[in-house]
Design goal:
Helix content: 55-70%
Number of strands: 4
Order of helices and strands: HHHHHHHHEHHHEEHHHHE
Number of helices: 15
Structural class: mainly alpha
Radius of gyration: 44 Å
């Protein structure tokens, strides 16, 4: 009897530790969850151990760094010469792309910055940026003063040489000019080839060259322009006094309306100058006076003097 009871008790005890398949899966899942919960504190400390929940200084630094990207940081400024500063350096100083292009074009066209305030001559240069950069602008004024003096000396020498040559020619052909003055004169802007060939040293070919160049120019305003048409100065000395010039016959070009390919047809406007005239006109508006060509340094004073009789600014 006791043996039977003992076997019944043993069977009941075994049944306590026997589980169905579903119960075994549930136990496994429960064990996994217990392990994950036990590891969560360690994982939390591992991933955020460098962040102090009460320290917002790092967030402040990132926020203000983002704001500083839109303005020029004082600690990024450095001394520079606007006559030599590169495009990359201008970007570091806070120049926008359009402003960099304008400044480079200003220098390419011959513009020089002789004092810091000259930067404001660049179209639409921001005043706030200028006042921020002004303490860092360093211009070698002595260098550009020497260059200006050298150019002035060169022009003076050229003028002296031209005067000397003119005096020599005047003396050489003085007697011939007295005789020529008594002869028939021709109006240079209306004379045809049949009249021009009557002059000494002007054959049919040179006569055609004179007329063709007159058409390109729009008319002659000075007898000396015949040299540009291929007439040798030795021949011109004999025939210069045989001409009179009616400047009212000169055809002018409107620099406010013509396109670049039309402007460059004139002998005194190069391809580069024609394109830059249209570019500045589109950017800044129509020219208000002929002197704007000098103001924007599109032409040198000598080039502007030659072109002036041939331009108009009618709207």
């Amino acid at each position: 009897m006791s043996n039977k009871r003992r076997q019944d008790d043993k069977g009941s005890f075994r049944e306590l530790f026997e589980f169905t398949r579903g119960e075994r899966r549930g136990i496994i899942v429960l064990c996994v969850l217990i392990v994950i919960v036990a590891l969560l504190p360690e994982m939390h400390r591992y991933y955020i151990r460098n962040i102090n929940p009460l320290d917002f200084s790092k967030l402040h630094q990132e926020f203000f760094a983002a704001i500083d990207d839109t303005v020029v940081r004082k600690d990024s400024l450095f001394y520079f010469d606007p006559n030599e500063v590169t495009a990359d350096d201008m970007m570091m100083l806070g120049f926008e792309d359009k402003l960099i292009i304008r400044l480079v074009n200003y220098r390419v066209s011959g513009g020089k910055f002789r004092r810091p305030s000259d930067l404001l001559k660049v179209y639409d240069f921001p005043e706030d940026l200028y006042f921020q950069l002004e303490p860092f602008i360093q211009i070698d004024t002595l260098k550009y003063a020497k260059q200006a003096k050298k150019v002035e000396k060169k022009h003076a020498n050229s003028n002296n040489q031209a005067k000397k040559t003119a005096d020599n020619n005047k003396s050489k052909y003085k007697s011939e000019n007295k005789q020529i003055a008594k002869k028939e004169k021709y109006e240079l802007n209306s004379a045809d080839t049949s009249e021009l060939v009557k002059l000494k040293g002007i054959g049919r070919y040179r006569a055609m060259r004179i007329v063709e160049y007159r058409e390109k120019l729009g008319g002659y305003v000075a007898v000396g322009q015949l040299i540009e048409a291929g007439v040798p100065d030795t021949v011109l000395a004999y025939i210069a006094d045989r001409f009179i010039i009616d400047t009212t016959l000169v055809k002018k070009i409107n620099i406010n309306t013509l396109k670049s390919w039309e402007l460059v047809k004139h002998p005194y406007i190069s391809n580069k100058q024609g394109k830059r005239m249209v570019s500045f006109r589109d950017d800044l508006g129509k020219f208000s006076k002929p002197e704007d060509l000098l103001k924007y340094r599109l032409f040198t004073e000598e080039e502007f003097g030659r072109l002036l009789p041939y331009i108009t600014i009618e709207n």
